[in-house]
Design brief:
globular; 337 residues; alpha/beta; 16 helices
Length: 337
């Protein structure tokens, strides 16, 4: 079973599961090369893997018995790998993952491909068919493809998380991580103003502290002057490690190619991998409809449960100052334009 793609992530609460009710045992799908990489970079020892999973499972049952989560091996491994097999940090990430989903129903309720056909058809985001030399999938985001009058910005965010959920099912992605390529060509001031501090803080809070994925680099190309304002909004919420993984290339594709070789990029970005095709990824997502229905279209526990807001990442726990922050952010955008 690889990365949980076959796992039923709609298990009853941890308290109601007994050992005999757990799904069939985990079978590693990693190559020998990736097993070695996971050992070196993530402190994952194959001989201890199932012991580590059991330890995290026991912690969930003991410390968060009402948490409605899957407890199968493949699912829990995502969180252990994302936090380099530190039990406490993996548990915190797991609890935050579920808290984030409850705290932002506009994004996470009814999260399924068929509900996002318009976003997928727009070409706002896709995953390139080739990985980078480190084995990272490349997620391409093109904000200029979004027309604000068609649907709100939260629909774009939903499409991003839909894509991440699909990617993280793969054990290879859990080990290698992902790379984001953001093309800001044609992004206007009016469009950028939709992505204010309130939205930025929530998105970054989830990506950094509420989702089990390793973001290895963010490459920004064709950014206009207005991007200085966008980045000024984003940067205060970024941890130093993530901030250091942002690379701004402007229109210099040669600079991009020093990080992402031409062989993995489509012709639109000076690559030799053919023309950009968004249809293949859309088809893959739409074929996963049933998985997302099982996971994201079920009743959600009340927000005032024992796993409540106190466990949210910082970006999701302080919405009260939203209006002032948005106004301040828009003034930053105008000042940088």
């Amino acid at each position: 079973m690889s990365g949980g793609s076959d796992s039923q992530r709609t298990s009853p609460s941890a308290a109601s599961l007994s050992e005999n009710e757990l799904p069939p045992g985990y079978v590693c799908s990693l190559s020998e090369e990736l097993v070695a990489k996971a050992r070196e970079e993530l402190q994952e020892k194959p001989e201890w893997r199932l012991r580590d999973v059991q330890a995290l499972r026991d912690m969930v049952r003991k410390e968060h018995p009402t948490l409605s989560t899957s407890l199968d091996d493949a699912f829990l491994l995502r969180f252990l790998r994302a936090r380099k097999f530190d039990y406490d940090r993996a548990l915190q990430l797991l609890v935050s993952y579920h808290s984030c989903r409850r705290s932002w129903p506009e994004v996470f309720s009814n999260l399924r491909p068929s509900a996002l056909k318009d976003v997928l058809a727009s070409g706002f985001l896709t995953v390139l068919p080739h990985t980078d030399p480190r084995g990272c999938h490349i997620v391409l985001i093109r904000p200029d493809r979004w027309i604000p009058s068609n649907y709100p910005i939260t629909e774009n965010i939903r499409a991003i998380y839909l894509t991440l959920e699909k990617l993280i099912q793969s054990e290879e992605t859990q080990v290698n991580g992902i790379v984001i390529l953001a093309d800001y060509k044609g992004v206007s001031l009016s469009k950028a103003s939709h992505f204010g501090p309130f939205i930025a803080k929530k998105v970054i809070g989830i990506l950094q502290d509420g989702f089990p994925i390793r973001i290895k680099a963010v490459h920004v190309v064709n950014e206009p002057r207005i991007f200085k304002g966008i980045f000024a909004i984003i940067k205060p919420f970024l941890k130093e490690k993530i901030a250091n993984r942002f690379f701004l290339h402007g229109s210099d594709l040669n600079s991009l190619h020093t990080n992402l070789p031409r062989s993995v990029l489509p012709g639109e970005y000076g690559g030799t991998a053919g023309e950009l095709d968004t249809a293949a990824w859309n088809t893959l997502l739409l074929a996963s409809e049933d998985d997302f229905v099982r996971e994201f279209c079920q009743p959600v526990p009340a927000c005032n449960s024992v796993e409540g807001p106190a466990l949210l990442p910082e970006g999701l726990a302080a919405d009260a100052q939203c209006d002032d922050a948005v106004r301040a952010g828009k003034s930053q955008l105008y000042a940088c334009y």
